[in-house]
Amino acid sequence: MPTSFANVIFAPKSMLVLVLSMLASLQTGCGPREVKIATGAWPWVPTSMEVHGLSRFMVQDDEEILSLRVEFLDQDGDPAKYPGLLRIEIDPAGPNKSSESEINFDLSDPEVNQMYWDHVSSTYRFKITPDWDEPPLPSTAIRIRVFATLEGAPELNGGITLRRGR
């Protein structure tokens, strides 16, 4: 059966139109996400910090510990690692000032940073054994304050009030 010249020209044109329309849809369908960039700074430096609600006192191996989770967020509200110094203050309410304690972590050290980073929750998790001469009563409010400092960035701080479980 003879093939007409019109059928030979028609097949490649339809294929060309199909390919061009697919390319055009790819160009318009997957545009880049708009990102806010901090002027003159690394855009993912944490701009806020929160003592996470998963923080609590718990018993582990017959020892009471404070499981403290700290979350840093960048300017887009996404979790971020923090490459600075972290100071944690534990302050049970009451007149006994000897119960207060302060712990420091240097998160600018890559090994320390990795040791406390929790990949699942994208927070830092610190397991702290309070250094109390005599632990406060279970109903005592215990104020936890966290301060983060990084050279060239504003100090971040946050806090939470917890009660012991025992």
What can be said about this structure in brief?
The chain contains two helices and ten strands; from the N terminus they run αββββββαββββ. It is an alpha+beta fold and 166 residues long.
Layout of SSEs?
Elements: H1 5-29, E1 48-51, E2 56-60, E3 63-73, E4 79-80, E5 85-92, E6 101-106, H2 110-116, E7 117-118, E8 123-128, E9 141-149, E10 156-163
Q: What does this molecule look like?
A:
The protein has helices at about 5-30, 110-115; strands spanning about 50, 55-60, 65-75, 80, 85-90, 100-105, 115-120, 125-130, 140-150, 155-165. By secondary structure, it is an alpha+beta fold. It has a domain at about 50-165: Immunoglobulins (Immunoglobulin-like, Sandwich). The strands form two sheets. Strands 1, 2, 3, 4, 7 and 8 form a six-stranded antiparallel beta sheet that branches. A four-stranded antiparallel beta sheet has the order 6-5-9-10, with no helix packed on it. Strand 2 and strand 3 (about 65-75) form a beta hairpin. The N and C termini lie far apart (about 95 Å).
